[in-house]
Amino acid sequence: MYNGPLPYVFEDRTGQHDASDFDDMYDRLFYRVARDPQRSATMVYDMGRRANRHRDSLPFHKRPIAILDFKPDQSLGNICYASNGNVAVPMSRYLKKTSMFGGSLSRKFTGSDGREYRWSYRSVQGQEWTCTTGPENYIVAHFDLKPADVRAYDVSGNTLTVFEQFIHLSVEILASLTIMRHIAQHNL
Q1: Three-state secondary structure along 112-146?
Q2: Alpha helix locations (H) across 52-187?
Q3: Residue 3 belongs to a domain
Q4: Residue 80 lies in a domain
Q5: Is residue 90 within a helix (H) or strand (E), and if so which, with residue range?
Q6: Domain assignment of residue 157, yes or no
């Protein structure tokens, strides 16, 4: 029997990096990532409740907690968080490549707690994206897509797992993951 803190396991309802709901399986946190049709920005919202299975179709009037403002050509633009007064930071400065010669699918960012975190693509078997910290590469979070040969019933099978001691960074983890997935999709 497991007695440690339970990780937050968010179901990614659609698997789309710019249009999905992320609902914790134990109903503790709920986020929405949505594209703003008026501009080339992707917003992250704290929903406060579980999403409707068919995505809410009502007009949406919440303030975003993070804004990922991509350029019209889909290249990297700016990121800003409501918690830092919506100060825009260039994404290329926020998520820095980990090496000059490594690909763009390994990047690091400094969290609001002052620690450095690193996203990497398929660096751990069974994980699509892995976020680590420290010289020992301690796993903070990981994103997993449902394998094509596995059936899922009434769930997408795509999950973002954030370990409990890092949940205070959940918005930063989700926002930076969204940027990493955008980078991968657009070969940036």
Answers
A1: CCCCEEEEEECCCCCCCEEEEECCCCEEEEEEECC
A2: 91-94, 170-185
A3: no
A4: yes
A5: strand 89-90
A6: yes
Regarding pTM above 0.85, the answer is: yes
The count of domains in the chain is: 1
Q: How far is CA 97 from CA 79, 91, 118, 128, 145, in A?
A: 16, 11, 9, 18, 23
CATH classification at residue 169? 2.40.160.200
- Give, in order, the Cα–Cα distances in Å from 65 to each of 62, 79, 126: 9, 11, 30
Q: Which residues contact 18 (CB under 8 A, 6 or more apart)?
A: 33, 34, 35, 42, 178, 182
- Per residue in 88-110, pLDDT (tens digit) is 999 999 999 988 776 689 999 99
Give residue-wise pLDDT tens across range 123-155: 999 899 999 999 999 999 999 988 777 776 667
